[in-house]
Design brief:
This protein has 164 residues and is an alpha/beta fold. The strands form 2 sheets. It has an 8-stranded mixed beta sheet with strand order 3-9-10-8-7-4-5-6. It starts with a strand and ends with a strand.
Length: 164
Amino acid sequence: MTVASKKVPISVTAWLPRPAVKYHGCYPRGFEKYISEWLETENYIHLFSGMCKTGFKVDIKEALNPDLCCNCEKLPLDSKSFEGGMADPPYTAEFAKLLYDSDYPEWSKWTSELSRVVKVGGKIGIMQNYICPIIKNCEYEHIYFVPTRIKQFPKIVTVYRKIK
C-alpha cells in the first residue's frame, strides 16, 4: 500500500476480543502489550487513555484516574518530554458526547500537542477505524490492522515517526 507517495508497511495483529467491561472506550483485550513494541519505547504519553494501564495517561475524565486530567488539545507539559506517544480519541462526535460528555476533539489541535511533546525521532500511534491523515512534522511509519470480533469495526493503528 502507498500512503502519501511512501510505501508504508501494513501488518495484521492477532484477532483481539473486546473486553467485558462497562466502559465502552476500552482497547481490545490484550492490545496494550503491543504499544511499547510498536513505539519502540516504554516512555510514551497516552492521550485519551481511558482505562489503559500503560504510558503517561492523559484523559479528561477524572474518574478514570489518569496521571494528568486535562483536555488533550492543550497539554500543560514541556515540549519533547516523551520518547513516543499513543492516542485513542473518540471516533465520532456522538461517541465523545456519550463517553466524555464533551465536544469532539479537534484533530489539528490534539495532534499538534501530541507531536509537540514527543521527541524528534519518536513514534506516535493513533487508533481509529481508518488510516489517519498525516500529522504535522511527522511521516508515516507503519499501519497495523487490529481485527476485533464479528460485526465490529476493526481498529487501525497508524504509526508515524516525528521528523522535526
